[in-house]
Specification:
Length: 213
């Protein structure tokens, strides 16, 4: 069974502030850089290392970035603080760079918590209700139904759990698990069996991610 790999097994995850305040900044930076290398590949990682290593290691830095990215008025409208807090609540346990999760959200929904996709995907991370149900069951996440996916906190919690599931499934192959997040593992498997490696979605997410720096 897939579970969160907590960095500090002796400390209970008792509050939203745990992941924000407890983990040392040096360890956060190490997690971010390791994830960046995984998803970018060594060549692109080395090309962008200087920018990635210097920027966006703290909550305040990420807030400042998103305010500049979308504008102060829209930051308030999209509840930017809630988005960032929801990401940071889970990101270190899953070994994700929080800027990568921001890139996924921006690509999926432009931070719109009320958006619904053509196939029924809901919220900032565009989660299908059926996906939310089985991922919540697998990870022990409280989930009461599709209406809860309009909650920024719940949507991001489930979306990040799903990304972590895919990351584990594809053994940290960034391009594969990013693509699978968009098209589903079954469809990706069919494409790979035909020697087709879809790259449009993963390229879009990665280009957005790199543009942040």
């Amino acid at each position: 069974m897939f579970k969160k790999v907590f960095l500090f097994t002796l400390i209970a995850f008792t509050s939203n502030s745990f992941a924000l305040e407890f983990i040392p900044s040096k360890l956060k930076k190490k997690i971010r850089l390791e994830h960046a290398k995984q998803i970018l590949g060594l060549k692109s990682y080395n090309r962008n290392l200087d920018h990635i290593s210097k920027n966006y290691h703290t909550r305040d830095e990420i807030i400042k970035f998103l305010k500049k990215r979308v504008g102060l008025k829209r930051f308030r409208k999209i509840k930017g603080h809630t988005i960032i807090n929801s990401i940071l609540k889970n990101t270190w346990a899953y070994n994700f760079d929080p800027m990568f999760i921001l890139a996924v959200i921006e690509n999926e929904s432009s931070y719109n918590a009320k958006i619904k996709g053509d196939d029924g995907e809901i919220g900032p991370m565009q989660i299908l209700p059926k996906t939310a149900k089985w991922i919540s069951d697998l990870f022990g996440i409280d989930y009461s139904g599709k209406d809860e996916l309009y909650s920024i906190e719940k949507n991001i919690e489930i979306g990040m759990a799903y990304l972590y599931f895919l990351k584990s499934m594809y053994e940290d192959d960034g391009r594969k698990y990013i693509t699978a997040y968009n098209m589903g593992p079954g469809n990706l498997k069919k494409s790979l069996e035909k020697n087709i490696r879809p790259k449009d979605y993963s390229n879009a997410v990665m280009q957005r991610y790199v543009s942040f720096f």
